[in-house]
Amino acid sequence: MPNEARPYHHGNLRAALLDAAERNVERSGTEQLSLRELARVVGVSHAAPRAHFADRQALLAALAERGFGRLGAQLKAARDGAGPDFGERLRAVIAGFITFANSRPVLLDLMFSAKPYGDKARLPAAAEALAVVYDLIGDGVAEGALAPGDPERYGLLLYSWAQGLASLIAGGGLEPEVTDSLVSDAVSTFIRGNAAG
């Protein structure tokens, strides 16, 4: 069907474009992503995506924002399902991050890249997702499990470690079966090394 015959309107075009973009990114990376190709995939005119995304960078930023929204929801669910013990909650959140990273490695790279949002400006959902660990660290300090310190500094250390572990697993450097024991060991070491008193 030629482009001129394709409809401009779509039931939920923004969501359809983001779904198609996410599939494309996980399959081929961000370099091949184009609004025109996404329009073809979802079956609308090549101009239709511009109603939702001014350009490719806006689409990438929206994709990263949606990814952070999903990550935040997954981390909150892991935290809330782990019970009252600080160590168990922290283990569950770090394991949740690694699970997300292993299921969407290219999307995670996009989310933590400065490219979509320029000047490393934070997306609202990014701040909310990252705050799950920062707030949990604050809880650990308040409960006396951790010595007082900067929750963001502690959190960045944990996120960096978890992302590195996820990269090793995705690259075949570690077997996924060792994830649970490594997370448990790392969190226990972190808590011991930063224990109050």
3D architecture notes:
The chain is mainly α. It has helices spanning 13-28, 35-42, 56-80, 86-103, 105-111, 124-142, 151-170, 179-193. Helix 3 (56-80) packs across helix 5, helix 4 packs across helix 5 (105-111) and helix 4 (86-103) runs antiparallel to helix 6. The model is unreliable at 1-8 (pLDDT under 50).
What keyword list fits this structure?
single chain, 197 residues, mainly alpha, 65% helix
How do the strands and helices of this protein lay out in sequence?
Elements lengths: L12 H16 L6 H8 L13 H25 L5 H18 L1 H7 L12 H19 L8 H20 L8 H15 L4
Helix pairs in contact: 1-2, 3-4, 3-5, 3-6, 4-5, 4-6, 4-7, 4-8, 6-7
